């Protein structure tokens, strides 16, 4: 990504634009030199193999360096830390998700009523999260990073914008945090894997929550 992130949308700024944010840090430039791009792809391929063979828990900076036959320092220079490496692995699916809710077909994309788009956002996120849950859990940032990452801010801004349209009298910013809490990967892990909650029940619960908030 460019060193400068696009400005956060204000309350009246539409988010339905083509700009997509990466999960990784601002140092992940889109126009890497050819050799640097090859090295980055090689490291991500090695990390993806480790995830497939050992799960996300098997992905360490040392293991990736060994699998890619490079020094550990190379991995740290490219991704910063383990969280940076794992978020880079998630980047492709995140960009596809952003493209869908920012400019894809309705009801997830523009063209549907705000409440309908809110329902579709949560259902799509839940399905993606359950499919990639181990990786999402491993990539969870600490308290100082979890709510300030560009992607989290984009998700929050998108939900807040839809809430302002669907429930003009509500505190859209706080309610957007509440909705994102429902989509928290550790909570999804607890409900689905520890409690055996069917994914369909989570989707129904999300729809019910959106309807109660928006009065739909």
Automatic annotation (TrEMBL):
What InterPro entries has UniProt attached to this entry?
A: Homeodomain-like_sf, HTH-type_TetR-like_transc_reg, HTH_TetR
Name of the featured protein: TetR/AcrR family transcriptional regulator
Q: Which Pfam families match?
A: TetR_N (PF00440)
The UniProt keywords, alphabetically, are: DNA-binding
Which sequence positions fall in the DNA-binding region? 60-79
Organism source for this protein?
A: Streptomyces galilaeus
PANTHER family documented for this protein: HTH-TYPE TRANSCRIPTIONAL REGULATOR RUTR, POSSIBLE TRANSCRIPTIONAL REGULATORY PROTEIN (PROBABLY TETR-FAMILY)
The reply on keyword Nucleotide-binding is: no
**In terms of domain of life, where is this protein from?**
Bacteria
Keyword Metal-binding, does the record have it?
no
Record domain HTH tetR-type: where: 37-97
The UniProt entry, under SUPFAM superfamilies, shows: Homeodomain-like
């Amino acid at each position: 990504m460019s060193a400068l992130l696009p400005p956060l949308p204000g309350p009246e700024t539409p988010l339905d634009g083509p700009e997509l944010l990466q999960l990784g840090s601002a140092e992940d430039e889109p126009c890497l030199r050819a050799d640097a791009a090859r090295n980055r792809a090689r490291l991500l391929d090695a990390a993806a193999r480790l995830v497939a063979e050992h799960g996300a828990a098997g992905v360490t900076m040392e293991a990736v360096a060994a699998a890619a036959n490079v020094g550990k320092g190379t991995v740290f220079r490219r991704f910063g830390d383990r969280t940076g490496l794992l978020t880079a692995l998630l980047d492709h699916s995140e960009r596809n998700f952003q493209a869908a809710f920012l400019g894809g077909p309705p009801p997830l994309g523009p063209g549907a009523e705000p409440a309908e788009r809110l329902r579709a956002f949560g259902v799509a996120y839940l399905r993606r999260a359950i499919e990639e849950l181990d990786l999402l859990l491993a990539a969870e940032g600490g308290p100082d990073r979890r709510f300030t990452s560009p992607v989290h801010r984009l998700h929050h801004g998108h939900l807040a914008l839809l809430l302002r349209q669907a429930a003009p009298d509500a505190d859209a910013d706080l309610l957007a945090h509440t909705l994102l809490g429902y989509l928290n990967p550790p909570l999804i892990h607890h409900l689905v894997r520890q409690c055996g909650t069917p994914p369909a029940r989570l989707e129904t619960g999300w729809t019910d929550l959106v309807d109660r908030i928006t009065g739909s």
